[in-house]
Amino acid sequence: MQIKDRTFVISGGASGLGLATVRDLHAHGGYIAILDLNAENGNKVVSELGDRTAFFEADVSSPPSVSSAVSALVEWVKHTKKSIGGVIPAAGVGFPGKLIDRHNEPIPLENLELVLNINLRGVLDLIRLCLPHMTTTTPTEPDGERGVIVMVSSSAAYDGQPGQVAYAASKGAVRSMTLVLARDLAQYGIRAVSIAPSYFESGMTAAMSQKVRKSLEGVFEFPRRPGKGDDFARMVRHCVENPMLNGECIRLDGATRMPSRL
Ligand SMILES: NC(=O)c1ccc[n+]([C@@H]2O[C@H](COP(=O)([O-])OP(=O)(O)OC[C@H]3O[C@@H](n4cnc5c(N)ncnc54)[C@H](O)[C@@H]3O)[C@@H](O)[C@H]2O)c1
């Protein structure tokens, strides 16, 4: 699908992998609707990139917030007349914790809900609300394609590490949803793909200790470095452009398999 003159809705677009995707799709002629909790960063990105971008403050774990952000971005799309061609729900959080701690206390349910509501329900909610505005567009591509959903899974969907129970559950769900969405949306000419990065440089991983980051770098086969935003964004671009990519979760990990212990 062509990127130029189509709108891409990107949650988590104010930082890290989402931001790299915003920059890349914008550089290739796309219109970008950024949804993020962080209004300061989101507005900064819009003033930097200027034309063809808009920021909508939203908490993807809050259904009313997602709903009002989608209504606002749909108004923007009506104004620009550049129909929604893609949804990239990249907003996500880690928040590690084992189900039971060393004092034999179960993890607070709110900690599990926080991760699941952002990484799983928030992803489904954003896609769900954008879809009615994609299924009704006039197909512009030779195959009758209308759009693509590119979700962000993780290597935790395959080899989750200790303390990643909620995160792995959410990212495993994203991986499992991919084929179902591809099947459900095929009749509309909408594809669904997900990308499973390993350790990538971003706001999320910058918060890890130097020791953990060094150990993670040691488990890469090749290249022996963390992934960069640009590596991720190029994969998203390929997912948008290649119509045969559908229903698959693609590992983007330099052949890394996350170990149980670092
Ligand atoms: N960086 C990695 O190594 C890595 C690996 C695998 C998967 N991922 C996934 O990539 C995605 C992007 O993460 P990142 O590493 O770029 O992190 P990041 O922290 O740099 O960016 C995440 C963005 O999401 C936003 N966000 C967080 N909670 C939100 C909410 N409730 N509502 C709206 N926006 C919210 C943040 O404000 C931030 O701008 C996440 O889904 C993450 O799980 C990252």
Automatic annotation (TrEMBL):
<dbReference type="GO" id="GO:0016491">
    <property type="term" value="F:oxidoreductase activity"/>
</dbReference>
<dbReference type="Pfam" id="PF00106">
    <property type="entry name" value="adh_short"/>
</dbReference>
<keyword id="KW-0560">Oxidoreductase</keyword>
<protein>
    <recommendedName>
        <fullName>Ketoreductase domain-containing protein</fullName>
    </recommendedName>
</protein>
<dbReference type="InterPro" id="IPR057326">
    <property type="entry name" value="KR_dom"/>
</dbReference>
<dbReference type="InterPro" id="IPR002347">
    <property type="entry name" value="SDR_fam"/>
</dbReference>
<keyword id="KW-0521">NADP</keyword>
<dbReference type="InterPro" id="IPR020904">
    <property type="entry name" value="Sc_DH/Rdtase_CS"/>
</dbReference>
<dbReference type="InterPro" id="IPR036291">
    <property type="entry name" value="NAD(P)-bd_dom_sf"/>
</dbReference>
<feature type="domain" description="Ketoreductase">
    <location>
        <begin position="6"/>
        <end position="199"/>
    </location>
</feature>
